[in-house]
Specification:
- Strands 4-5-6-3-7 form a five-stranded parallel sheet, with helices on both faces. A two-stranded antiparallel sheet has the order 1-2.
- The termini are far apart.
- The protein has 20 helices and nine strands.
Length: about 475
């Protein structure tokens, strides 16, 4: 393995189109101009990183840990193109540990065992630490993640995992408890514009040798359409540069529009069309159109979307847009998620299709979502309002003498419901958060709540739509 700045590196390509079996020095840029612009422009030190000031500011924890060469096991969580791999490579350049990249997609158990064995031997013979970078760690199943745990615990490796998924769901609790989680945010348009400007003028790694001039607004147009993804922004710039170079050396806004409409970028998972199709899928289900919903579902899956991403969206939709209008919707979404996890491809797709058509056809209500947001706003704006004395627990005689529990009506003593009673803080008495919609099962909930609130009889619930026969 090649050595540089005290760091030994085995390189695995960012997109994992190829696995390199030979050692490649991350610091060797002799062939840099042959790679994609996004790879060539990767920062090589902290000072070059755009954005992520909450992580890389001089007084921030991660920045201090890197400079002190005391990087613990950590999980880098963020959308595509926000710098997870770059962060790992910057750590490689500024640490004295050996850096071992590993792809959770292409790497096998035998490859991982080989890396762990070498790390153990390196620590025993040379007293040298090893940083194991696992890209797309959410692709590891539970058994694979469990296999890493003892090696992280005993210090054989310092784990750096990169994921686009919420670590709370994508990483085992035991492994997560032994790592710090750092969230990377999408880059803002101004940050992306600075990155693009630097790439356009960089003669060593960027496009400086083309001597291109950017029309006013062209770089900003790319930045705004990249949706925080630096890799996508640089990829679009590279296409635009080819167009501009062929047309006389000026990068125009028209070139940007042409590059953005190119079919090669049509369903970049980090790009605009991805979000457009996802939006169409959600809005079709919300609009009670199962035909459009299944079409947009297939558009995503046929383009290579991760089915688990679709399942998560449907889980969210079942609660946010259907809620108590049909409580079975969430049950079906959870069941579809479990069925896919058990069956895999292709049989698990049938459960996804069933769930999609059911959610699109079910009665809709966002009353629970509205209740959540309104209550959250009150808590944040009004602070911790005191608990009414009647609701406090009179655990001691002293508490009872202070009025704790006095006036509390025990619902079971009144047939299971204390009509007209209030349980909110005194300042919020009468406040309504949950207002059931006249849809499906929520019509029955609305009638019952009207009675309990002492508001008189409600309209009789409609039959069907979420009711049991």
């Amino acid at each position: 393995m090649s050595r540089s700045a005290g760091c030994c590196v085995t390189r695995v390509g960012r997109r994992h189109a190829r696995c390199y079996t030979r050692s490649v020095d991350l610091f060797d840029h002799s062939h840099a101009k042959k790679g994609p612009l996004a790879d060539r422009m990767r920062p090589t030190r902290l000072a070059e990183v755009e954005g992520q000031a909450h992580l890389f500011g001089p007084d921030k924890l991660l920045s201090r840990l890197i400079r002190a060469d005391r990087v613990p096991s950590l999980i880098l969580w963020g959308p595509p193109g926000t710098g997870k791999t770059t962060t790992a490579e910057v750590i490689a350049r500024e640490t004295a540990a050996t850096f071992e990249p590993f792809s959770a997609v292409l790497g096998g158990v035998a490859d991982l065992r080989k890396i762990l064995g070498a790390a153990r031997e390196r620590a025993r013979v040379y007293g040298k630490r090893t940083i194991l970078f696992v890209d797309e760690i959410h692709r590891f199943n539970k058994g694979q993640q469990d296999a890493l745990l003892p090696h992280v615990e005993d210090g054989t490796v310092t784990l750096i995992g990169a994921t686009t998924e919420n670590p709370s769901f994508a990483v085992n609790a035991a492994l997560l408890s032994r790592a710090r989680v750092f969230r990377l945010e999408p880059l803002g348009p101004a940050e992306l514009e600075r990155l693009l400007s630097r790439a356009l003028g960089d003669t060593a790694r960027g496009l400086g040798e083309l001597n291109l001039e950017a029309e006013e607004g062209a770089l900003l147009a790319i930045a705004e359409q990249a949706h925080g993804d630096a890799r996508r922004a640089l990829s679009v710039l590279e296409v635009c540069a080819d167009l501009a170079h062929a047309a006389g050396g000026k990068l125009r806004v028209a070139d940007v529009q042409q590059a953005l409409s190119s079919k090669t970028l049509l369903y970049d998972k980090s790009g605009e069309e991805h979000y457009n199709v996802v939006s169409a899928f959600i809005k079709s289900m919300r609009g009670n159109d199962p035909d459009a919903s299944i079409y947009w579902l297939m558009r995503m899956l046929e383009a290579g979307e991760d089915p688990r991403f679709v399942l998560r969206r449907m889980l969210i939709f079942a609660s946010e847009d259907i809620g108590n209008a049909d409580p079975r919707a969430l049950e079906l979404a959870v069941a579809a998620d479990q069925a896919f996890a058990r069956l895999g491809m292709p049989e698990g797709m049938f459960a996804i299709a069933q769930c999609c058509t059911y959610l699109a056809s079910a009665p809709k209500s966002n009353a629970s979502y509205e209740a959540w947001t309104t209550a959250q706003q009150d808590v944040r704006e009004r602070g911790a309002l005191p608990v009414p004395l009647k609701l406090r627990n009179a655990a001691t005689a002293a508490m009872k003498s202070w009025g704790y529990g006095e006036g509390y009506r025990y619902p079971h003593a009144e047939g299971g419901h204390a009509a007209g009673e209030s349980y909110l803080p005194d300042e919020l008495v009468g406040r309504r958060y949950y207002e059931p919609r006249p849809e499906g099962f929520e019509t029955r909930i609305a009638a019952r709540l009207a009675r309990l609130r002492g508001e008189g009889p409600a309209v009789a619930p409609e039959r069907g739509d979420g009711e049991d026969a």
